[in-house]
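Structure (tokenized):
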């Protein structure tokens, strides 16, 4: 009997905790005592959902999941990426072609940006159709609108970072469009580019915006958005007003959590399959002198790209600034304009009709852009050729970047005083932007190291004064230098190597002598026979020298020939300027230069940074262009 009672008593006692279970409970309790994490989880998971859980509510959490995915993949890519024109493209190429799963990670990051735009649009439509912006949710809606703009900003700034052809030219068009805004447009364009043209400052600014500034703002506004949502509570299903929502509610956990997780898994699966089966390709390195490339933006900016084609000349401000500003303002002000309690969309015809018109218009513009490209044989052919070049480079084996043939040859051990002055000229005239620091070679220009072993000093002077057609096509323009600066620059170029040529040695040390018998006003002559070196007869004229056309100098110095050809004869990228004086008056040409049309902007035409007198000189030169002036 005693034994039976003891067995019965022992069977009724609760089973003691296992040692590992007791330890985990103590650890959780220790953390909770110091952080309150269990209470926080209860507040999050026990939130009541009016009307119960629904798949219509999964888009907000999915956006948060995609943002975390973008953060993780972006962090992995940033471990290898180096933001400069010399290294950006080669570092992305290394990621894609050499790093384990690098192409998959980059593709996942790229497709993730598109997924964020799609899910954000779905979240907006769900919130709009459910009327969830009504009531005391104005600030919640405004925070969401700011997040929409920040997401588009992330997509725009990240597009340039690979520094390939597609990224460079599409961003060039985008920054030119930003420059069309009145009053502040040119300032915004210069701020984004870091100057009048795209280069090292542009890519560094876009990198900082994409990696630091915009993500910080997104985290800030996501936190604000979630806090305001918790304060306002879920709006519930569509009923006449919030007071008509049934009393039945359902906690966020477990049903809504399971629905959110299921949708996140679907998104992750789709992105993973796309990244694995259709990797995002990397094209050839950006070549700003390529006059044939046709830029096309990503699909989510394609409607805007097509829209801008319909607004040219003085009307461009209406299409590029006024109408988009009005639409964005209406989006922000929607909760203040639609103040009724009715939430059913069929009872709100004006807001529903307005949103439908905008969405259908965007869809039509995107399709129209594709159709226009397909119908134009020259455009479709060029786009197909660009695609072939992109495929060819993407499947080409990785080739590491080499700064110069010999790592010791391009940095002179010691520069003479004359060469030091030449280095200052080299740096101040932006030569390193094309030829790289110390002339080691860059994205556009070739290496200048050991140039003394290839050319005589007189040949270098001649090339500086009259660049070859190939040099001009690459953007090389004759620098505006006085004779002293020319001697210094050529001296510095001669020091970029290991040459001991006596002609260069003499040239670098021989002072400049003015020949009063031959020199004309504003110009100086070279030494007639400096210590047995070659006869240097090439003369650089000063900016104000007699017989020099200032308009022609401006045309050359602003690299207009890169698009319009020598003497304005035209290229495939830009039209001929011959006889342009017969088509436009001086005032009309000035207006076009100050305010390029949308077609000109798409082709890469910037607004030249010229004074009124320089602009008049350029217009005078353009109006005088005739076939006789054209280069063969």
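Design, position by position:
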């Amino acid at each position: 009997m005693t034994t039976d009672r003891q067995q019965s008593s022992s069977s009724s006692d609760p089973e003691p905790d296992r040692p590992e279970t007791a330890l985990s409970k103590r650890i959780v309790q220790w953390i909770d005592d110091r952080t309150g994490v269990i209470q926080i989880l209860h507040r999050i998971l026990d939130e009541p959902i009016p009307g119960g859980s629904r798949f219509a509510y999964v888009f907000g959490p999915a956006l948060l999941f995609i943002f975390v995915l973008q953060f993780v993949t972006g962090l992995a890519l940033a471990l290898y990426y180096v933001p400069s024109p010399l290294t950006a493209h080669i570092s992305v190429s290394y990621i894609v072609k050499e790093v384990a799963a690098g192409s998959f990670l980059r593709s996942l990051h790229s497709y993730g940006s598109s997924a964020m735009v799609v899910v954000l649009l779905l979240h907006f439509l769900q919130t709009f159709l459910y009327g969830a912006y009504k009531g005391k949710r104005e600030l919640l809606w405004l925070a969401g609108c700011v997040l929409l703009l920040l997401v588009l900003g992330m997509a725009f700034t990240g597009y340039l970072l690979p520094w390939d052809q597609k990224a460079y030219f599409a961003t060039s068009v985008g920054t030119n469009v930003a420059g069309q805004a009145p009053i502040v447009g040119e300032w915004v364009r210069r701020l984004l580019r870091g100057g009048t043209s795209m280069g090292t400052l542009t890519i560094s600014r876009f990198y900082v915006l994409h990696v630091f500034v915009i993500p910080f703002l997104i985290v800030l506004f996501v936190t604000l958005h979630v806090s305001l949502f918790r304060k306002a509570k879920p709006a519930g299903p569509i009923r006449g007003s919030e007071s008509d929502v049934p009393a039945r509610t359902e906690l966020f956990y477990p049903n809504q959590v399971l629905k959110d997780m299921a949708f996140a898994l679907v998104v992750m699966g789709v992105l993973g399959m796309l990244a694995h089966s259709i990797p995002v390709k990397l094209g050839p390195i950006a070549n700003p002198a390529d006059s044939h490339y046709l830029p096309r933006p990503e699909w989510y900016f394609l409607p805007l790209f097509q829209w801008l084609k319909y607004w040219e000349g003085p009307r461009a401000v209406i299409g590029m600034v006024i109408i988009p500003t009005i639409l964005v303002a209406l989006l922000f002000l929607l909760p203040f304009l639609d103040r009724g309690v009715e939430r059913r969309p069929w009872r709100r015809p004006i807001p529903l009709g307005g949103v439908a018109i905008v969405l259908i218009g965007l869809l039509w513009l995107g399709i129209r852009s594709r159709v226009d490209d397909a119908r134009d044989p020259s455009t479709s052919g060029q786009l197909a050729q660009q695609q072939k070049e992109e495929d060819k480079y993407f499947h080409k084996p990785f080739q590491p970047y080499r700064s110069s043939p010999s790592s010791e040859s391009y940095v002179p051990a010691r520069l003479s005083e004359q060469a030091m002055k030449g280095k200052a000229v080299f740096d101040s005239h932006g030569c390193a932007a094309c030829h790289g620091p110390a002339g080691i070679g860059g994205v556009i220009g070739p290496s200048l190291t050991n140039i003394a072993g290839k050319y005589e000093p007189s040949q270098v002077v001649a090339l500086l004064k009259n660049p070859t057609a190939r040099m001009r096509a690459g953007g090389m323009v004759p620098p505006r230098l006085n004779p002293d600066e020319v001697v210094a620059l050529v001296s510095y170029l001669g020091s970029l190597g290991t040459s001991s040529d006596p002609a260069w040695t003499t040239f670098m040390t021989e002072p400049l002598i003015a020949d009063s018998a031959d020199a004309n006003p504003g110009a100086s002559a070279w030494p007639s026979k400096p210590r047995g070196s070659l006869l240097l007869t090439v003369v650089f004229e000063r900016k104000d020298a007699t017989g020099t056309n200032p308009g022609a100098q401006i045309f050359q110095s602003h690299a207009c020939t890169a698009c319009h050809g020598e003497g304005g004869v035209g290229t495939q990228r830009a039209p001929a300027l011959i006889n342009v004086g017969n088509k436009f008056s001086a005032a009309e040409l000035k207006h076009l230069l100050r305010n390029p049309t949308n077609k000109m902007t798409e082709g890469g035409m910037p607004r030249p940074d010229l004074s009124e007198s320089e602009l008049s000189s350029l217009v005078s030169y353009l109006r005088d262009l005739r076939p006789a002036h054209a280069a063969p």
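Reviewer-requested clarification: The chain has three domains: 59-237+261-282+302-390, 417-433+453-467+480-532, 550-629. Residues 200-232 form the longest helix (33 residues).
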